Backbone:
């Protein structure tokens, strides 16, 4: 089964076909999401918050991304896997960005990388694209700049900020990015960007008009107890299902009703008898 390609993602926009994307960080979840038919899997640096318990994405390292991307690539057959470039790996220079991206591509095998920023990241995007590494951009509320934004706040609200965002999208397009994530911008601005952009826009907290949607899988499955962002809908309460199952498990272990013969291995009766005869 062939994987989805960046070119096919662009064609989906041209056909007006919506592009569903979810985060994944491990083998088992990647298998489930891939079998369900999600078009792209993002090994996002959101792993820092939902998998590792940090209060931001900033501590995530290239090694973290590599380890989790390896698992997601092993667990998926069809989805295009995008790996995030974490904080510190692309801010210094295009050359350092290239070094981080090459490590991720070589050691983990995703089909693309994603990095935050528009005009300022465009030289690095161009270098990667020229080297044959497909790149997805990320604009709006870029979580690695949470300290500069003073929290997870909607971006692009003034005319100047909205025009800067449009310039960022144009810079990414020009540098060769194949798609761009728009995070926490108004639905109206996302609509204008989507109409003008030649590359697909993938929204998160950006309303219904983007070409695709990405969500943190823990948020839509009810797996992250700390909070659910306003832009996410819980499509299941997996956290509750897990807690109830574990409560039942604890009860059965205590009551000695689990495990039973059904979950046990048997041994030759003569050997057992000999063991019992001669301690
Ligand atoms: O890391 C992540 O999960 C992301 C999404 C929020 C787009 O970058």
Residues:
């Amino acid at each position: 089964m062939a994987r989805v390609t960046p070119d096919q993602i662009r064609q989906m926009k041209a056909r007006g076909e919506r592009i569903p994307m979810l985060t994944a960080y491990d083998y088992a979840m990647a298998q489930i999401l891939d079998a369900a038919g999600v078009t792209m899997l993002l090994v996002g640096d959101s792993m820092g918050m939902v998998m590792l318990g940090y209060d931001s994405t900033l501590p995530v390292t290239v090694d973290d991304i590599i380890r989790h991307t390896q698992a997601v690539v092993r667990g998926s057959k069809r989805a295009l896997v995008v790996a995030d470039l974490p904080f510190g790996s692309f801010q210094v220079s295009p050359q350092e960005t290239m070094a981080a991206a090459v490590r991720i591509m070589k050691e983990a095998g995703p089909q693309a990388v994603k990095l935050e920023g528009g005009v300022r990241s465009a030289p690095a995007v161009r270098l990667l694209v020229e080297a044959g590494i497909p790149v997805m951009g990320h604009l709006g509320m870029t979580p690695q700049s949470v300290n500069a934004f003073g929290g997870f706040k909607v971006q692009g609200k003034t005319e100047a900020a909205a025009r800067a965002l449009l310039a960022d999208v144009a810079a990414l397009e020009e540098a060769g990015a194949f798609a761009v994530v728009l995070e926490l911008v108004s639905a109206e601005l996302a609509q204008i960007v989507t109409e003008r952009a030649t590359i697909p826009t993938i929204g998160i907290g950006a309303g219904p008009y983007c070409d695709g949607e990405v969500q943190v899988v823990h948020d839509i499955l009810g797996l992250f107890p700390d909070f659910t962002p306003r832009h996410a809908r819980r499509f299941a309460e997996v956290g509750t299902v897990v807690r109830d199952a574990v409560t039942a498990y604890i009860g059965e272990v205590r009551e000695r009703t689990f495990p039973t013969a059904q979950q046990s291995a048997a041994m030759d009766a003569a050997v057992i008898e000999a063991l019992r005869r001669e301690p």
Summary: Residues 238-255 form the longest helix (18 residues). The chain has two domains: 6-236, 241-277. The mean pLDDT is 97.
